[in-house]
Amino acid sequence: MKKTIREVKDYVGKEVKMGAWLANKRSSGKIAFLQLRDGTGFIQGVVVKAEVGEEVFQLAKNITQETSLYVTGTVVEDTRSPFGYELQVKELEVIHAAVDFPITPKEHGTEFLMDHRHLWLRSKKQHAVMKIRNEIIRATYEFFNENGFIKIDPPILTGAAAEGTTELFHTKYFDEEAYLSQSGQLYMEAAAMAFGKVFSFGPTFRAEKSKTRRHLIEFWMIEPEMAFMNHEESLQVQENYVSYLVASVLKNCQLELNTLDRDVEKLAKIKAPFPRITYDEAVTLLQEKGFDDIKWGEDFGAPHETAIAESFDMPVFITHYPANIKAFYMKPDPERPEVVLCADLIAPEGYGEIIGGSQRIDDLDLMKQRYEEHQLSGDAYQWYLELRQYGSVPHAGFGLGLERTVAWFSGVEHVRETIPFPRLLNRLYP
Ligand code: 4AD
Ligand code: MG
C-alpha cells in the first residue's frame, strides 16, 4: 500500500512508496535533493547517483516543478529537516510531467497569485494557512460537542434578512424573491427553542462594496445560540471558545505556525477572561487617543477598532453599543434602553472584529415595535415573532467570522488568503 508523508514517521528504516509532486529541487553532479509534497506534508527526497544509477539520477535532475511522481525509498530520521524525516530515494516514476508551472519560487504580485489561486493553493504558505483553518473547524466541533451543543444547519436560501437589508444578494426562487443567507441567526433562535444549545457552521454572503483586508463577499461563520442565557453568560462562552481555539492551534499546528513565522508568544498569552469595555468607554478612549471625529452614537471603523485593540494584548469585548447602530433583534439594556446588550470581540494586532453577538429581544410587543421601526415585512418574519409567542425565554448568541480568526492566528495580513477560493468585490474566479 502506498504511504503518505504524514505516515512516514511509522516507517523509519523501512522502504515506502508514495505519490507526490515536486515542489522544488537542487542538484549537483552526484546528488539531487527533491522537495516533495503530497498534501499531507513536505519531505526531502535524496537521490544519490552512485546508489540509483545513471538513469534514475538523470530523471531526478530533469524533473520539473509540480510534476507528479511515484517515489520509492527508505525513510530516515533527519533532525535538520523541519519535518524530521528524509527519504533516500531508490526509484522514481513520473506520472505526469508539468511544464512551465506558473508559480515559481520567485516573488509574484498579488493579482497574479489570485488569478492562479487554483495552483497557488499548493504552496507551502497557503498550505499552512488552510491547515490552521481546518484545525479551527475541528476544534470548533470538539468544543461545542463537549459543551452540550447540537449542530443545526440553517438554510442558505432565505426569505428574510437577518442583518442589514442593503447587503443582500437577491436571487429568483421560482416566482418568489429570495436571498442568500447573511447569517443563520434567526433560524438558530428557533433551533435554540427546540434544542437548548445549538451551533451552526456555514457560508454567509454579504453584498458589501467594501474592499478592505477584513471583508469577503462570501465568508464562513460559526453561530452558537443558547436558550436561558443572558448577555454576560454568552460572553463567558465566547471567551472560553476563543481560548480553546487558540490552545488547539498552538498544540496541533506548530509546524504551520513555524512555516508562517508567526510570533506564537503573542498567541500563547490569549486566555480567558478577556477584558470588557463599554461603547462609552471606547469612545472616551478614542477621543483620548486623538480621534476627534468620533461622536457618541456613531459606529466604529477599522482604524478605531485597531486603536482600541492596541491598548490590550488580549481580545477585548466592546459592550453596550447604541441601539440605533445595531441590528433590530438586540435586547435593550433594561437600565438604559438607548444601548443594547451586545458585544463585539476585537482581536489584537489589528485583525478587527472577529465576533458579533447579543442577547436577543424575547418580548413579543417590543419585537413587533422593532419591526415597525425597521420597516420589516410582517409576512417574512411571522415565524420569528412566533418564537416570542410560545414559551419565550431569555436567550443569547453570537457569530464568529472564521476567516478573520484564521488571519489572526496565521498572522496573514489579508482575509483573501484564509479561504480556499475567495469571493471579493472584483473577483469571482477561479
Ligand atoms: O457582526 P455580524 O454581522 O453578526 C451577525 O451576523 C450576527 N447575526 C451573528 C450572531 O449573533 N449569530 O457578523 C459576525 C462576524 C463578524 O464579527 C466578523 O468576524 C464576520 O462575521 N464578518 C465578516 N467576515 C469577513 N467578511 C465580511 N464581509 C464579514 N462580515 C462579518
Ligand atoms: Mg458586527
Question: Please, could you describe this protein's structure?
Answer:
The chain is an alpha+beta fold and about 425 residues long. It folds into two domains: about 5-95, Nucleic acid-binding proteins (OB fold (Dihydrolipoamide Acetyltransferase, E2P), Beta Barrel); about 115-415, BirA Bifunctional Protein, domain 2 (2-Layer Sandwich), CATH 3.30.930. Helices cover about 30% and strands about 25% of the residues. It contains 14 helices and 18 strands. It has helices spanning about 50, 55-60, 110-115, 115-120, 125-145, 185-195, 230-250, 255-260, 265-270, 280-290, 300-310, 365-375, 380-385, 400-410, and strands at about 15-25, 30-35, 40-50, 70-75, 85-95, 150, 155-160, 170-175, 175-180, 195-205, 220-225, 275-280, 315-320, 330-335, 335-340, 340-345, 350-360, 395-400. The strands form four sheets. An eight-stranded mixed sheet has the order 6-10-11-18-17-16-13-12. A five-stranded mixed β-barrel has the order 1-2-3-5-4. Strand 14 and strand 15 form a beta hairpin. The protein is elongated, with a radius of gyration of 26 Å. The mean pLDDT is about 95. Magnesium ion binds near residues 344 and 353. This is Asparagine--tRNA ligase. It comes from Natronobacillus azotifigens. Its EC number is 6.1.1.22. Homodimer. InterPro entries: Aa-tRNA-synt_II, aa-tRNA-synth_II, aa-tRNA-synth_II/BPL/LPL, Asn-tRNA-ligase, Asp/Asn-tRNA-synth_IIb, NA-bd_OB-fold, NA-bd_OB_tRNA.
